[in-house]
């Protein structure tokens, strides 16, 4: 859930804890009201019974009968409102005596009539001498607010103890939402570039339901076209299929720039004209200025047609901007699975030919200024030389990353990096963070650097406080730490070794071989030797041991063994790992 969805859930939970009354959640179609309602049902306090009405378009008798059905009362055909209300009250008293609270949740509440709302209000009068017997949650579209504002419903409106109105997602929240949805689906690489995300926000208005529909159709279109990313044209076609004639028409970029330039020019002319006018009035006096203006208007004006007017269109080079990724949120554990997919790595035939020629058929390239065999080669400094082919540079970077793990990676046979990593007992992890986070994780990582608007695909092989060693386009270079930090874009992908059968972070209550692996490595990190069979249940004792390890490594102390915790645990207990801060394998 987004920040506002979490805030809405907090309002609902607070309203339910208050004794009696109404809790109100409103929002436009597709803003996620049902998502919040589901989270509410999962997080209700213990001993809370829920009656859910999904179709409120009923008569008063039918509504009361539906409530009786939800409370699992024996069916009785009765047309008496009093009899039905009495049955509901007796059942609520019985549940209250057993220590249970009862919540009535009504979805699509904007369809309720005034009579139904008044009857529902009367249900909140059911109470003991100390407590109300029923909490009522109303979910509806903005029309519900207009309905409750009517004079005859002022008593009900005054009983609303908590209310929240859901709006669309903001542009800042959209990339995080998209990444979460893709992560749940098992994919953890950027598929929507920043310009495409902006276009998606314009087309969907930030409504989660439309975002889902358009994105799903766009992914299908990209799949059919055998593309690794969603293009603007594919997204626009997907929006047409979803929205039909209701697709908003974006202002073309060229038109937008022309309007901005025109407005700026007019503003400049206006300012110049105002200054000139004031100077004339000040120097010549108002009378002289008036005569000059009058004579100018009275004199004939002839157009100069002796020379044609030439208009030239100036073509400027366009510099491709690298994709921007949202910053890391709160430093919490990532939930990426071992099948998380890094950048596309779908290699074209032309690239394969270059790989064959430049890398696969020859040993690692020798630094340009290599010394004699008896001397240690000196690695050249990075000069920000433009890469001939960034996609090929990315392929080479991943191939060098696998070599650091002692694995010969042939992208011609396995074009998807993380699928191949999984087959080798490794996993991909893509994160947003600073170079300090990368140094803390202590693993080589592929990333994109940016200098003067140009992107470079590189592999960071080593990193200390003064400098870094990077691999770019088939050669290794040294770059100052300050230069690396200035060119750092925040997104990087590394390889790590997960526990056996690991698929998601290990939470308290988990069981299996991954938990046994965790206990073994915790014992090694603590300098202990296991003298009894490894436990396979993530119990309270293991939670405290994980929390203690997280505390010692400066991680978030949550007792959950996610990728960051496990990577640092590997670094403490295993020696055959490629590291940034020590000797590389």
Plain-language structure description:
- The longest helix is centred in the middle third of the chain and has 32 residues.
- The protein is α/β, with parallel strands linked by helices and 585 residues long.
- Helix 9 runs parallel beside helix 11 and helix 12 crosses helix 13.
- The strands form 2 sheets. It has a 6-stranded antiparallel beta sheet with strand order 6-11-7-8-9-10.
Ordered list of secondary-structure elements with their pairings:
Layout: H1 3-17, E1 21-27, H2 33-42, E2 48-53, H3 60-70, H4 81-97, E3 101-106, H5 114-123, E4 135-140, H6 143-148, H7 154-158, E5 160-166, H8 173-184, H9 194-204, H10 208-224, H11 232-243, H12 253-284, H13 286-298, H14 349-360, H15 390-404, H16 417-423, E6 427-432, H17 435-441, E7 445-451, E8 454-463, E9 467-472, E10 475-480, H18 481-487, E11 488-496, H19 513-525, H20 540-553, H21 563-573
Helix pairs in contact: 1-2, 3-4, 9-10, 9-11, 10-11, 12-13, 19-21
Brief summary of the model shown:
The chain is α/β, with parallel strands linked by helices and 585 residues long.
The helix/strand class is: alpha/beta
Radius of gyration: 33 Å
Helix content: 40-55%
Average pLDDT works out at: 78
What general form does the structure show? globular
Unreliable spans are: 251-256, 292-348, 361-374
Question: Can you summarize the main beta sheet?
Answer: 6 strands, antiparallel
Instruction: Give me the count of strands.
Output: 11
How much of the polypeptide forms β-strand, as a percent range?
A: 5-15%
What is the count of helical runs? 21
Strand order of the largest sheet: 6-11-7-8-9-10
- Distance between the first and last residues' Cα: 42 Å
């Amino acid at each position: 859930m987004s920040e506002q969805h979490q805030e809405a859930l907090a309002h609902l939970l607070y309203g339910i804890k208050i004794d009696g009354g109404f809790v109100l959640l409103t929002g436009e179609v597709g803003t996620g009201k049902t998502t919040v309602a589901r989270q509410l049902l999962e997080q209700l306090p213990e001993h809370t019974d829920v009656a859910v009405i999904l179709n409120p378009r009923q008569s008063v008798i039918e509504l009361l009968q539906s409530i009786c059905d939800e409370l699992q009362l024996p069916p009785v055909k009765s047309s008496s409102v009093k009899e039905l209300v009495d049955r509901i009250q007796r059942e609520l008293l019985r549940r209250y005596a057993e220590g249970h609270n009862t919540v009535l949740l009504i979805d699509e509440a904007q369809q309720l009539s005034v009579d139904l709302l008044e009857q529902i209000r009367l249900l909140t009068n059911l109470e003991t001498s100390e407590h109300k017997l029923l909490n009522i949650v109303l979910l509806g579209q903005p029309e519900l607010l207009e309905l409750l504002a009517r004079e005859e419903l002022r008593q009900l409106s005054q009983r609303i103890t908590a209310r929240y109105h859901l709006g669309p997602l903001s542009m800042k929240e959209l990339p995080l939402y998209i990444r979460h949805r893709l992560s749940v689906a098992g994919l953890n690489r950027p598929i929507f570039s920043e310009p495409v995300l902006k276009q998606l926000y314009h087309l969907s208005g930030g409504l989660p339901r439309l975002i889902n529909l358009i994105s799903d159709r766009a992914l299908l279109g990209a799949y059919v076209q055998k593309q690794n990313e969603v293009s603007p044209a594919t997204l626009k076609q997907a929006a047409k299929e979803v929205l039909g004639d209701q697709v908003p028409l974006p202002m073309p970029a060229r038109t937008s720039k022309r309007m901005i330039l025109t407005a700026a020019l007019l503003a400049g002319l206006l300012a110049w004209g105002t200054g000139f006018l004031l100077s004339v009035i000040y120097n010549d006096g108002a009378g002289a200025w008036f005569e000059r203006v009058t004579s100018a208007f009275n004199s004939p004006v002839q157009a100069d047609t002796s020379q044609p007017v030439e208009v030239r269109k100036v073509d400027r080079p366009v510099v491709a901007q690298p994709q921007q990724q949202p910053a890391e949120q709160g430093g919490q554990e990532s939930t990426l699975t071992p099948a998380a997919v890094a950048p596309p790595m779908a290699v074209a035939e032309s690239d394969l030919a270059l790989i064959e020629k430049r890398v696969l058929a020859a040993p690692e390239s020798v630094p340009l200024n290599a010394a004699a065999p008896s001397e240690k080669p000196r690695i050249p400094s990075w000069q920000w030389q433009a890469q001939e082919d960034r996609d090929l540079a990315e392929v080479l970077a991943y191939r060098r990353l696998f070599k650091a793990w002692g694995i010969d990676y042939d992208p011609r046979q396995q074009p998807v990096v993380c699928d191949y990593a999984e087959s080798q007992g490794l996993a991909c992890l893509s994160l947003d963070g600073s170079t300090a986070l990368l140094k803390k994780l202590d693993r080589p990582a592929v990333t994109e650097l940016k200098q003067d608007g140009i992107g470079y695909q590189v592999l960071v092989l080593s990193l200390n406080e003064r400098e870094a060693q990077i691999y770019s386009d088939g050669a290794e270079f040294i770059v100052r730490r300050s230069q690396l930090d200035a060119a750092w874009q925040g997104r990087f992908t590394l390889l790590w070794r997960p526990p056996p059968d690991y698929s998601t972070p290990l939470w308290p209550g988990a069981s299996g071989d991954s938990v046994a692996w965790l206990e073994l490595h915790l014992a090694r990190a603590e300098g202990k030797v296991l003298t009894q069979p490894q436990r396979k249940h993530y119990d309270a004792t293991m939670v405290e041991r994980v929390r203690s390890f997280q505390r010692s490594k400066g991680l978030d102390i949550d007792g959950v063994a996610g990728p960051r915790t496990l990577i640092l645990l590997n670094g403490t207990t295993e020696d055959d790992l490629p590291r940034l801060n020590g000797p590389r394998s």
